[in-house]
Amino acid sequence: MLTAGATLGFLPNLGPMEYLIIGGVMLLLFGRRLPEVGRSLGQGIVQFKKGLKDIEEDVNQAADREPAKFENAKTPLNASGEDVRVSRGEGVETPAGEAGVRPAGS
Fold it and tell me: DSSP assignment, residue 3?
């Protein structure tokens, strides 16, 4: 049965003094490498923040630009100004010999 104070199965109920002792042993074993590790972690954090800032600038620039105007998105009109799109009720002109689309209900 688990007790309420158990943190890890192999290190149950460690107090602050035990953590200080473990930290001191780690410092003795890896003391020379700690500045290098700290420096590399700091550089990694700086690069991460720089990347986030670049992405934020790109998003802001894209949001500030005017939306693109699509000339082709306008309704196609014939010379008399009527809409020339095909409706569902109309047939479609096809080259001779090919089957065309028939209106619904016919």
Answer: -
Rounded to whole angstroms, the Cα distance separating 2 from 93 reads 80
Question: Tell me: the pLDDT tens digits for 42-86?
Answer: 999 999 999 999 999 999 988 888 777 666 667 777 778 777 776
- 77: helix, coil or strand? strand
- DSSP sequence for 75-91: PPB-TTS-B-PPPTTS-
Could you please report the per-residue DSSP string of 90-105? S-----TTS--PPPTT
Token pair of 17, please? 């003094």
Indicate the domain borders of the chain: 16-64
Two tokens, residue 86: 């095909």
Determine contact, residues 7/13, Cβ cutoff 8 Å: yes
Amino acid at 54: D
